[in-house]
Amino acid sequence: MRPKPASINTSDGPADPVSRTFSLGGHVLTAPKAVPGLHLVATPIGNLGDITIRALETLAGVDIIACEDTRMTRRLTERYGISALLKPYHEHNAAQARPVILQKLAQGASIALVSDAGTPLISDPGFKLVREVCAAGHAVIALPGPSSVLAALCVAALPTDRFFFEGFLPSRGTARRARLNELSRIDATLVMFDSGNRVQDTLADLAGIMGTRDAAICREMTKLHEEILRGPVSELAAKADTLETRGEFVLVIGPPAARASVMTEEALDDMLRGSLQRDSVKDAVAHAVELSGRPRREIYARALELAKEMQQQATDDDGEN
């Protein structure tokens, strides 16, 4: 049984539904009118069953749901029989939509902000809206719930006492490697998003910079084809060509090893040569300092020697050809 569709007031003032209801387990339940303010509602990252009761009550009880993509949010509202006024709020229309939302809040409206999946404001433009809503003196209410960041951390089998969320890495290889070199210096578990068309390149770059660390590839979290792969970064990268690339990815990289163990000179040379083939001396040194446990001055001097040797070898090879 589906609830009676709510009538929507299309005037400039807040919507005034005849009924605020949602369906759950075959029953139609009445939701109280949400208090005025901006409600940040976490929505499922894949499995629609992960929605909370409080989230359903709020989505049914607000005047407007502001969402990244009305088509995505409508799948959720239709699943739970929620008749709601959906308004788009995304990076392309945010500058125009924010004043309208602020005006409606000033009129006493209750508005829910949702992303396509997960917790609003995580890798989306919602923080600008929240900042302006707070500055205007309106209430901001958080409804915690699904998050791909926390879900991936939980299943990665890696330390969770300290973590750094990067979001999406740069799409271009040079910029991505430079950013990964910066991230390699952070003494924490790293969490980053990636897309299927770039994940293999990202893994190759990770192998060259953080290859000895343990990691997890989390694909399609909570969905039908969820897949979790765990192992050292170098091993995961070696199997990247067999990786199913359809879907959304969260990569979790363990923290750097304790610096008590000092890398051998031979291993240091191998690592520096590999890094110098892709990166500058500065980046190669930073990477080696993070992993080797050896002094920066020693590594820098050795990197200069190897760079000179490699340049001479390339010159000799060109001369022979």
Average per-residue pLDDT, rounded, comes to: 88
CATH class of the largest domain: Alpha Beta
CATH homologous superfamily descriptor of the largest domain: Tetrapyrrole methylase, N-terminal domain
Percent range for helical residues?
A: 25-40%
Order of helices and strands: EEEHEHEHEHEHEHEHEEHEHHH
Overall tally of domains: 3
Number of helices: 11
Low-confidence stretches: 1-18
Shape: elongated
Assess the beta-strand content as a share of residues.
Answer: 15-25%
| Biggest sheet character | 5 strands, parallel
CATH topology of the largest domain: the name is Cobalt-precorrin-4 Transmethylase, domain 1
Please state how the strands of the largest beta sheet are arranged side by side. Answer: 5-4-6-3-7
Cα separation of the termini: 79 Å
Gyration radius, rounded = 25 Å
Report the CATH architecture of the largest domain.
3-Layer(aba) Sandwich
* Counted beta strands: 12
Return the structural class: alpha/beta
Structure, described:
There is one protein chain. The protein is α/β, with parallel strands linked by helices. It has 3 domains: 126 residues, 3-Layer(aba) Sandwich (Cobalt-precorrin-4 Transmethylase, domain 1); 105 residues, 2-Layer Sandwich (Methyltransferase, Cobalt-precorrin-4 Transmethylase, Domain 2); 56 residues, no CATH class. Helix 6 links the parallel strand 8 and strand 9. The protein is elongated, with a radius of gyration of 25 Å. The termini are far apart. The N terminus is likely disordered.
